């Protein structure tokens, strides 16, 4: 278990808070989320992919099975689970620190639902930029700050460095599309595609359809695809 209280709390959150059942016909409930399906569509096949915040390996496995080479990165306890369950190539690492990879080692980096848990988000994005080859793809997905549901959630106080809560750490950062694009551009990326994604599972009746019909003001998450800017661009 990590010594850093911030890291401990994030790991506790991921290990013990699992509100959705696993579907035995596919590797995990998270594959049903629209943002996950978008990521698989954007990535395609034949790529060298770094999946940051790979959790227990569900998305990494789907990316690998689509015909890609994948390395997953997360806390040691989670990467051990991913390796044992799916025979994944994984690296145990605290994402609050610089990535243990060479410059330009990958042509695709994926960060699904991880940027919102990191205090130094710009530093993290710059590390993603560093390990990508020129023209490489960055797929990132974050909570939508404009969403009415997320605004109400923020008002409940379950946001930020909540070390004492039984579920551990909660979402620290929410993003507008403009704000996220500005971060990416500052780090040296050019945004090529984006989408607003509804929340599939919720205790609120009809929430998925409300978010799908009114994505700008209701959609739970933002999905963005960007490319590493080349010297000539």
Question: What would you note in describing this structure?
Answer:
35% of the residues lie in helices and 22% in strands. The chain has 233 residues and is α/β, with parallel strands linked by helices. It has a single domain, classed as Vaccinia Virus protein VP39 (Rossmann fold), CATH 3.40.50.150. It has a 7-stranded mixed beta sheet with strand order 3-2-1-4-5-7-6, with helices on both faces. The longest helix is centred in the N-terminal third of the chain and has 12 residues. About 15% of the residues have low confidence.
Notable characteristics:
233 residues, alpha/beta, Rossmann fold, seven-stranded mixed sheet, 9 helices, 7 strands
How are the secondary structure elements laid out?
Elements (H helix, E strand, L loop, with lengths): L4 H12 L17 H10 L4 E5 L5 H8 L3 E6 L1 H11 L2 E4 L13 E7 L8 H11 E12 L4 H8 L21 H10 L2 E9 L9 H7 L1 H4 L2 E8 L5
Parallel strand pairs: 1-2, 1-4, 2-3, 4-5
Antiparallel strand pairs: 5-7, 6-7
Shape: globular
Provide the helix percentage.
25-40%
Name the CATH superfamily assignment.
Answer: Vaccinia Virus protein VP39
Strand content: 15-25%
The structural class is: alpha/beta
Q: Strand sequence of the main sheet, in spatial order?
A: 3-2-1-4-5-7-6
Largest sheet: 7 strands, mixed
């Amino acid at each position: 278990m990590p010594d850093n209280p911030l890291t401990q709390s994030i790991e506790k959150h991921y290990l013990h808070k699992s509100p959705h059942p696993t579907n035995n016909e596919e590797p995990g409930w998270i594959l049903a989320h629209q943002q996950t399906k978008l990521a698989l569509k954007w990535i395609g096949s034949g790529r060298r992919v770094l999946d940051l915040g790979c959790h227990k390996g569900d998305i990494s496995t789907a990316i690998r099975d689509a015909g890609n080479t994948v390395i997953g990165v997360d806390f040691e306890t989670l990467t051990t689970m991913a390796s044992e369950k799916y025979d994944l190539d994984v690296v145990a690492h605290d994402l609050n620190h610089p990535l243990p990879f060479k410059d330009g080692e990958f042509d695709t980096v994926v960060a699904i639902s991880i940027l919102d848990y990191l205090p130094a988000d710009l530093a993290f994005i710059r590390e993603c930029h560093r390990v990508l080859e020129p023209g490489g793809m960055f797929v990132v997905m974050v909570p939508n700050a404009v969403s009415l549901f997320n605004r109400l959630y923020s008002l409940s106080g379950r946001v930020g460095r909540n070390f004492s809560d039984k579920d551990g750490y909660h979402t620290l950062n929410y993003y507008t599309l403009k704000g996220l694009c500005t971060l990416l551009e500052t780090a040296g990326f050019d945004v090529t595609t984006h989408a607003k994604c509804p929340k599939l599972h919720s205790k609120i009746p009809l929430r998925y359809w409300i978010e799908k019909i009114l994505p700008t003001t209701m959609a739970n998450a933002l999905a963005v695809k960007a490319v590493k800017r080349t010297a000539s661009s």
